[in-house]
Design goal:
Elements (H helix, E strand, L loop, with lengths): L1 E4 L5 E5 L2 E5 L12 E2 L8 H4 L4 E3 L10 H7 L5 E4 L6 H8 L4 E4 L6 E2 L5 E7 L9 E8 L2 E7 L7 H4 L6 E5 L14 H26 L3 E5 L3 E2 L22 H10 L13 E4 L4 E4 L4 H6 L1 H21 L8 H15 L2 H6 L2 E7 L6 E7 L4 E4 L7 E6 H9 L6 H7 L2 E5 L5 H7 L4 H16 L5 E4 L2 E4 L9 H4 E4 L2 E4 L4 E4 L15 E3 L14
Parallel strand pairs: 3-5, 5-6, 6-7, 11-12, 12-13, 17-20
Antiparallel strand pairs: 1-2, 1-15, 2-3, 4-14, 8-9, 9-10, 10-11, 15-16, 17-18, 18-19, 20-21, 22-23, 23-27, 24-25, 25-26
Amino acid sequence: MRVTGTGHASMRIDTAAGSILCDPWVNPAYFASWFPFPDNSLLDWESLGQVDYLYVSHLHRDHFDAKHLRDFVSKDATVLLPEFPTSEMEDEFRALGFTKFLKAPNEQVVELPRGLKIMIQALTSPTDGPIGDSSLWVEYDGVRLLNQNDARPTDLSVFADLGHVHAHLLQFSGAIWYPMVYELPQAAKTAFGKQKRDRQFDRTWRYIDDLKADHVFPIAGPPCFLDDALWQFNDIHGDEGNIFPDQSVFLSEYAKVGGTNGIVLLPGSVTEVTTEGATTTHPVPVDEFFANKVAHLEEMRERKRPVIEAEKASWRHPEVDVLGQMKQRIEPLLEESIYLAKGVGGPVRFDLVGYDGESVESIVVDFPGKEVRPYADEKVRYRFRTERALIEHLLFIDEVDWVNSLFLSCRFSAARIGQYNEFVYAFFKCLSEERLQYAEGWYDEHERSTDAEDITLGDWVVQRRCPHLKADLTRFGIVEGDQLTCQLHGWRFDLPSGRCLTSVGHKVRAHRVDAEAPAPAGEAVI
């Protein structure tokens, strides 16, 4: 099995039974904020795009690059579709001219012609990508590969049960806006960033240890930031709180925990994987490339500057009535929302900075009141500040996912009172009838489900599944004193009270080993 690195989470997998192109991303994403690093735009995409199969893990725009898919990937390729709860991904592929699809049943091995086997695991929580993320397992002639990209399954046993994996490709770096955009003192940002950076690596080590593959490939990050306004987000400034470490940092950190089987794929690197080992050739020496990272970024910044400026010129739409169109778009969804609206629990404020860079219009999305209206000088728990032009553009293009556009762009600042609230971001991922109805149904089922199994962690008996996204706490749970941390997403819980310390809601069931379990709610204690 040959694996060719094509940048970020992208790769081409070649076997004698066919080729698979995964997640090709080349063009800037999220309001021209994110670019692939190392740069992959100079690869021979005319040849790389001539494949038998195409797999895109999810709809995040650093994985689903519509322009590149349209221009460079063969329309004769069969698209391997995860079993997602909505038809959005297939609809988008069809709009680009793809006509051949294989809808892979979730977690079931599919035998393709000539002995090639694949399995796709789809994650379907509203917080997984925009309504879904996925991983691809591939086997040919006894060689097995898992492309986990940036999916976060609760465990990898479904893949391990299929046989020993020889190549494990997974995310290790950040792909979020926290904590950089928050209006916090720099010392606090650094502390929170270092905590998140450490958690990212801890989660990666846990996945690697679970699968125990022969070879580990760090992929799916980090992006680079070439706009002058975002340049500080690149991990080149000696900031220990930067959440975007690169592949060379991965190798260094991996070595500290005993890892010796890491392989970096630069764009154009080729690894031949067999059951006996792996041989890799690179277009340039890896150590030399990352030693010159700053120079590479500066060269890219100058080369891509016209691309960024052209994108910026397209954002302003002064003809858009922002308040009126936000009311028209959002209020019907507020009326239909039960779980998300209750979860947000208060007004969310958008401060929109005008073209002059000074004037500000403040608009509130009032979840309890089910309306969008001008700000009325009330207290809000969440506030976002961004350019008016960005909101105009979202409304102009009828964007249904403001998380996978505005928020991931990092072109905003945020402030909040109290804990992180996942429902805020879940709602702004679901600005369509189809998405909202799915998310409401998911939370309804999630809330009604019961989790009766308990486990013992240290001095505590706790429910086995994390209340957040059902991670198995026997694998991801760490107890320190009276606090439980789920390492899958870093969520923390106060065990004596069960209260979630990370977000609103999500109470955990717990009691000390030497104490009686509390009676279920509504049950009499005799």
